[in-house]
Specification:
The protein is of the alpha/beta class. Helices cover 31% and strands 23% of the residues. A six-stranded mixed β-sheet has the order 2-1-3-6-7-8. A two-stranded antiparallel ribbon has the order 4-5.
């Protein structure tokens, strides 16, 4: 293992408690001190790009610049084959309401669109994750991961977050929302991206 990666700590450039929890769990065994942008009171930058990598870079560089520490961001989303890749980079936007994000509403919206299209089953989809590791001096590295699967209805499970309760990864019987977090961490899009990050930074 490389000696003392991120000795002063690493900022997770997110205000999403679910993402922060998953990322922290993945880094925990390496002894990395993790702090979230939310804990530091950093503002959330506008995500103005139309790609996962573009928005990941915005978030990581904003947190690294503001904190003076290396920062890692995650931009991820659900891409539904029959919807031309939607909601994609706008995954969180599909859940927005005047009172905050409602992913039950967002999942119902996706399913209703598939029903309106009479999309045949299995209704293929994939979760995509792009990680950006940025330093205060402007350098960055990008790591990407994907998990293929299909969508189901009614939703199943109350674990995970976002669209997890309607997504069944290929080769599995349970949705991400039904899985034990440790099982999900082994096979998720975030785990695939993190495997590349770990190889680059810790091997």
């Amino acid at each position: 293992m490389k000696s003392k990666p991120f000795p002063e700590g690493l900022v997770v450039a997110s205000h999403n408690d679910g993402k922060v929890s998953e990322i922290s769990a993945l880094l925990e065994k390496f002894g990395v001190k993790v702090v979230s942008a939310k804990m530091l009171g950093l503002s959330e930058p506008a995500e103005t790009e139309n790609s996962f990598v573009g928005n990941a870079r915005i978030k990581a560089h904003a947190a690294a610049t503001a904190s003076g520490l290396p920062a890692i961001s995650d931009d991820s989303g659900l891409m539904v084959e029959a919807l031309g890749g939607d909601p994609g980079v706008y995954t969180a936007d599909w859940a927005e309401t005047p009172d905050g994000r409602d992913f039950n509403m967002a999942m119902e919206k996706v399913w209703k669109k598939l029903e309106a299209l009479r999309s045949p089953e299995p209704r293929r989809a994939k979760f995509c994750c792009t990680l950006c590791l940025a330093w205060p001096d402007g350098r960055d590295e990008v790591f990407e991961g994907i998990v293929e699967g299909s969508l189901t209805w009614p939703i199943r499970g109350d674990r995970g977050f976002g669209f997890d309760p309607m997504f069944i990864p290929s080769g599995q019987a349970k949705t991400f929302g039904e899985m034990d977090p440790a099982q999900k961490h082994r096979i998720s899009h975030r785990a695939a991206a993190f495997a590349k990050f770990m190889k680059a930074r810790f091997d």
